[in-house]
Amino acid sequence: MPVSSNLANEPARVVEMFRKMLVIRAFEEAAGEAFHAGQVRGSVHQYIGEESIAVGICANLRDDDLLTSNHRGHGHSIAKGADPRAMMLELFGRVGGTSDGKGGSMHIADFSVGMLGANGVIADGCTISVGAAQSIRLLKQDRIVVNFIGDGGINRGPFMEALNWAKVYELPVLFVCENNQIAATTTTRLVTAGEGIAKRAESFGIPAITIDGNDLFEVDSTTARVVAEIRNGSGPQLIQAMTYRLRGHFAHDPAGYRDPKELEEALGREPMARTEAWLLKNGVDADEIAALKAEVDGEIAGYVDEAANAAWPDGALAFTDVQDVGAPEFPGESR
Amino acid sequence: MPVSSNLANEPARVVEMFRKMLVIRAFEEAAGEAFHAGQVRGSVHQYIGEESIAVGICANLRDDDLLTSNHRGHGHSIAKGADPRAMMLELFGRVGGTSDGKGGSMHIADFSVGMLGANGVIADGCTISVGAAQSIRLLKQDRIVVNFIGDGGINRGPFMEALNWAKVYELPVLFVCENNQIAATTTTRLVTAGEGIAKRAESFGIPAITIDGNDLFEVDSTTARVVAEIRNGSGPQLIQAMTYRLRGHFAHDPAGYRDPKELEEALGREPMARTEAWLLKNGVDADEIAALKAEVDGEIAGYVDEAANAAWPDGALAFTDVQDVGAPEFPGESR
Amino acid sequence: MTEMTYAQAARLGLQEEMARDPKVWALGEDLGYEGGMAGQYNDLQAEFGPDRIVDTPISESTIMGAAVGAALAGTRPIAEMRFSDFAMCSVSELVNQAAKARYMFGGQARVPMVARMPIGIRGGIAAQHSQSPEAWYAHTPGLVVVTPSTPANNRGLLKASIRCDDPVVYMEHKGLWGMLGEVDENDQEPIPLGVAATVRAGSDITIVSWAAQVGVAAEAADVLAADGISAEVIDLRTLYPWDRDAVMNSAARTGKLLVVHEAVRVGGFGGEVAAEVAETLGVPVARLGGERIPIPFSIPLEEAYKIKADRIAGRVKEMLA
Amino acid sequence: MTEMTYAQAARLGLQEEMARDPKVWALGEDLGYEGGMAGQYNDLQAEFGPDRIVDTPISESTIMGAAVGAALAGTRPIAEMRFSDFAMCSVSELVNQAAKARYMFGGQARVPMVARMPIGIRGGIAAQHSQSPEAWYAHTPGLVVVTPSTPANNRGLLKASIRCDDPVVYMEHKGLWGMLGEVDENDQEPIPLGVAATVRAGSDITIVSWAAQVGVAAEAADVLAADGISAEVIDLRTLYPWDRDAVMNSAARTGKLLVVHEAVRVGGFGGEVAAEVAETLGVPVARLGGERIPIPFSIPLEEAYKIKADRIAGRVKEMLA
Ligand SMILES: Cc1ncc(C[n+]2csc(CCOP(=O)(O)OP(=O)(O)O)c2C)c(N)n1
Ligand SMILES: Cc1ncc(C[n+]2csc(CCOP(=O)(O)OP(=O)(O)O)c2C)c(N)n1
Ligand SMILES: [Mg+2]
Ligand SMILES: [Mg+2]
């Protein structure tokens, strides 16, 4: 662990962050199981193995800072403060879900904590983020916007446009590229020209730093610095967080294309165990950690239980929240 | 003039290129006049002041090399070998035009000389160019593709995607960014982050060179080298040709936003006079040049005259060349 | 009453709304010096500053996407796309994001933005600058689609669109930018969205149209009047939601419906109106629209595409025969 | 005859065409290892090499735009967009370029490409992965629009689309990928574009549909048959050009028309068919389509969107009452 981390002296804060990571991990495991059990339909993209990034980034944000995400948005949402219970209800399509069951996994959002939504379309969140920053500027607020983008997503034009745009207007945007080295089944190195996203960002005049995303302490300390700079008017910056996707692209992908040796190595670097090791070394005892895990597992299991038994939304709900002008009429029972 | 130019010892070749430049200049002046006279409708984006780029680039291409262009495509077309007579007929919307009057200024094309078309949508030509190069690869040909893009166009996502794409597949594409420092009425520096296109291209691993686009000799020698490299398998490269748009964005734009001092300076660097000066210094006499100019002016004036008096296409022609499956029926005289 | 052009009226409406609500702003290419394609933004950058009339890079995806983000974050952006053809570079941002954000986030979000994208033939700007894709957006849940036909409409409907909390696709017709008409500067009220205007009362047939074609339909009604045929002309003004009541009442009264639009007939929104009327009233319906061809450049070709008054009149006579 | 799925049949058709013509190739995300969303490309990269089954970056504009360029330069590319929703990131390339190149260049160019973009509800993939925008492309001059409904269709129509010299928008329905059906491997002939199939003969009413809704319509016909109502079901197969003759002949015979599609009813292509039939034959017409809402996620909500057989049967009974 780099000594530079400002966390090193704050085991209590690390415990809190570790707890968030545990929630994400447990949530994702549970979501995957529910998917396999046929309780959750559609798509479930798990964030397993990347927890330290979302948590390390969001620990340095205020509640009113904004966040835009992509298809792999559960971890980002939980880290930003969305309620995992409502999220689980959403995955199950039940009453009380974050989107009333209208959205599902790829459209988790919690505007009350600045989480402007996961997104089913790669890189569309990037242009949204720069516009949100323009609103912030216009409203004379000191909020910032964080946009999560994958290493596959960086090759979409709208992301590249957004980089230019953010720098032209010197907007308070932090782009976080989660480089897990793969996009669905494609090794991104093979479809990404040049030396990578940091170099590209720099060509737009955007400061970019590459860090070990699985090192919670490095993520935290880097983000603390960068967020402070952005809030003080540095203009946009980019963090490339190196990581590894420990599961398939989505819950039903066995990821057979994965080199087993590579996976094994990656498991050795995964963030849960590393953070736990740090805690043990820094005076948090094993019992406390075990209790924490049990507590979190129980919490998530409870949500699953609740979600599996929660009420289904009424079909009429399909017809609300479309638009006010020209709102669709509920066709009624006769359907 | 740089001594390195391989043209320096070939005055005859320079005369030939100068003639092309004269044709472009005369064509554009004539097109502008016809536009002002109400003989040409729609849009006319003149290439005046940038002639040395198209001519210097295309002089190094084979007839079967391909070219994709943008809205300012007359110069590119003439340089690639399109017939200015048919182009003028097209601008006038008459029978015999390059597109039978269906396209007009923004859709000049001559597939017989590899000119795959001007384009009304900024940067859409860029993605077309990389695909054309993929066809070339698949067909085991040794042709190359040249794509012209403006300094305003570089901020569109599809261009940036195309850069990545071209390098990923190591395609035989030459991107030529004509940096005339303005996009319509917008100074591109103000909406372009970072150090510019050369840096951006390099961030994709694409070799990029910035040259004086108004120096025919520099354009020619650079292109000769770069085209040879690309044809020999170097993968994509980019040339940024610095230049200046001597007229308005289109023929009816008085360009009042232009700093008069800047314009005056630019006029001092414009390519026609510079090339002419070189010829005079290298043994071509003034009479010969005057005769060349008169000949070209007469040629273009003849085309204008012919176009102004040429037949209009029959309305029925509007219904051809749409598609074979589901071809529209000509509604007939009864319309 | 002041006489002004359609473009000037749009500028006036925008200026009024920007003065009224500091959260209203616009972004697009060449809005400052140029003042937009037809002066719809003239001098507004000087009045409201470069942060509210924002000159952007040529980045259509981001112009539209940024508007979505800005709307989500609390302001009321106007994304100026210059041509509906260029807006085709930002369909995902409009259709996948703007139109769906409120719904897919279960009502947590609102997207009060206006996407301005002029449609139609202007004369010689050909296939990539003349399209009329309004039917696409009328087909897209979440979007309001507005198509003003006169200067007064263009001011009043733009004002309503800016105040609307739903994303609005606002489609001026380029061919109308120079059209003169009376505008009541004292009346600051928006024209309500979703309400049609009866441009000409009549009893023999109902002609429904929108945008530039309304004027042509009115011209056809004149031609028909000379022949003793009384045609009612309805300007939908808002394409979605379209004013069903106005159309049904009229068509029930006249007993016949003709829908006319400049957009390609096949798959055009006229099909929606005609099918609904046929289904609901069982009266004879017909449609006129462009042939399914791109818009050509040359005059006789472009003319061959257009729906002229005599063609409308001819079709009406056939229906009444 | 071999029994195979709709997705397998598409793969077979593609394989046959790639073996037949070395100029045919495909580009898109995850075509190699993954073999496409539903295995439509399984093992083809191994068979034809990575230059003919090309794994691309996530760059939708370029997938489509490169296909246009490749077609212009002499090969026959297939742009795989995975979902029609993602193809909304490449509308300019499809509509401004592919659809118009031949026309605006006066016939100098041909664009023999296929843009594959599956439509429809698959179950829980919600608003940004379930759209059916076929009406947009049917409205776009220059494009052919194909919507296969069975494994045999999916093979035969894909083959025809690949051989077609016009740009084809090829829209599988995601919900049909697992559908089993008989395919005659010995008959290598494509199914001609623009020709409808009568799925079920009948005399009381004509039901026109396409893609997944054809099966539902046939189901409705079964329900109706039990009540002594004889419904003819027509599968358009190609949406543009649609088989006008087949529909008109049938509707003239039965005297009634119902068009059913999964796409949103408002502005859907059903309006075109219904309006044409009403205008031409004057027979009663009706349409069923999705309400104008995004596709929701949760089961009861998604179900509330769908057009079920009993609703079709109910509407038919109303029309015959
Ligand atoms: C515009 C678009 N293209 C394609 C997809 C399909 N898709 C979903 S996730 C994904 C891979 C994304 O990879 P990356 O950006 O690296 O994120 P990761 O999944 O690795 O977190 C793809 C291709 C999509 N959702 N949107
Ligand atoms: C996608 C798109 N957006 C906007 C336009 C309108 N437009 C036409 S030319 C132009 C400026 C282009 O500037 P640049 O690329 O520098 O080329 P130049 O005109 O200087 O040669 C603009 C904005 C367009 N044609 N297409
Ligand atoms: Mg990745
Ligand atoms: Mg320029």
Would you kindly provide a written description of the structure presented here, covering whatever features stand out?
The complex is a heterotetramer, with 2 copies of chain A (335 residues) and 2 copies of chain C (321 residues). With 335 residues, chain A is an alpha/beta fold. Chain A has a single domain, classed as Thiamin diphosphate (ThDP)-binding fold, Pyr/PP domains (Rossmann fold, 3-Layer(aba) Sandwich). Chain A contains 11 helices and 7 strands. Chain A is globular. Chain A starts with 10 loop residues before the first helix and ends in a 26-residue tail after the last helix. The mean pLDDT of chain A is 95. With 321 residues, chain C is of the alpha/beta class. Chain C has 2 domains: 2-183, Rossmann fold (3-Layer(aba) Sandwich), CATH 3.40.50; 197-320, Rossmann fold, CATH 3.40.50. Chain C has a 7-stranded mixed β-sheet, with helices on both faces. Chain C has a 5-stranded mixed β-sheet with strand order 9-11-10-13-14, sandwiched between helices. A two-stranded antiparallel ribbon of chain C has the order 1-8. The longest helix of chain C is centred in the N-terminal third of the chain and has 15 residues, at 6-20. The radius of gyration of chain C is 19 Å and the shape is globular. In chain C, 73% of the residues are buried. The mean pLDDT of chain C is 96. The interface between C and D is large, with 50 and 50 residues. The structure holds thiamine diphosphate (2 copies) and magnesium ion (2 copies). One thiamine diphosphate sits between chains A (71-72, 120-122, 150-153, 178, 180, 182-184, 188, 245, 249) and D (29, 58, 60, 82, 86, 89).
